[in-house]
Write a structure and sequence with these properties.
The chain is mostly beta strands. The chain has 3 helices and 8 strands. A 4-stranded antiparallel beta sheet has the order 1-8-7-4. A hairpin with a 7-residue loop joins strand 2 and strand 3.
C-alpha cells in the first residue's frame, strides 16, 4: 500500500471522533545543528460526515523557529498501526498551510491541515485511539518530529 493511501486512510479514520488531545513539543534536530522548530498548541477538530455532506478532520498548531517556518507535515495514524510512523515516513505526506502569526519579528506560524472525510472512508477506518504526528521544518534546516502531537478516539 502506498504512503499516500495510508495517509488518506488514516486521516479518513476519524469519522467517529470522540475527543481531541493536547499538544506535544518533541524534537529531532536536523543536520545543521539547529535545535529545530517548536510545535505548540496542537489540536484536532472533527465534523462528522452525513448522508448528504462529507465531514472533515482539521489539525492546527503554532510552529515557531528563530529562522522562520518552512513547513509542517501532518499524518493521522491509528495507535494499532505497527510500526508507528517515524520522521522519514513524514517526508511522504502532505503539508499543512502555514501563515505568519504573532508580533512583528516573531518567527511563528499558525499551521492548519484539513482533509475531507466521507461516510465510506469513515466506515473502513480502524476504531480506537489515534494520534496526529507532525514533522516541522525550519528555514535553517532544523526539524522537529512529534509522533503524538495530538490524539483522539474513533468510536465504533
Amino acid at each position: 500500500m502506498s504512503q499516500r493511501v495510508v495517509t488518506l486512510s488514516a486521516l479518513a479514520g476519524a469519522a467517529l471522533l470522540a475527543g481531541a488531545g493536547a499538544y506535544a513539543s518533541a524534537g529531532e534536530s536536523g543536520n545543521t545543528g539547529s535545535t529545530g522548530p517548536e510545535v505548540a498548541q496542537a489540536s484536532v477538530a472533527y465534523v462528522a460526515p452525513t448522508a448528504d455532506k462529507d465531514g472533515s478532520l482539521t489539525f492546527t498548531a503554532r510552529v515557531s523557529d528563530a529562522s522562520g517556518v518552512r513547513n509542517l507535515k501532518v499524518l493521522a495514524w491509528p495507535e494499532s498501526m505497527a510500526p508507528a510512523p517515524d520522521a522519514e515516513d513524514m517526508a511522504h505526506v502532505e503539508s499543512a498551510t502555514c501563515e505568519p502569526s504573532g508580533p512583528s519579528g516573531d518567527k511563528a506560524a499558525l499551521c492548519t491541515y484539513t482533509v475531507k472525510v466521507t461516510s465510506a472512508e469513515a466506515a473502513e477506518s480502524p476504531k480506537g485511539a489515534w494520534h496526529v504526528g507532525v514533522l516541522a521544518s525550519a528555514k535553517d534546516g532544523g526539524r522537529t518530529f512529534a509522533p503524538k502531537a495530538a490524539g483522539f478516539t474513533v468510536k465504533g
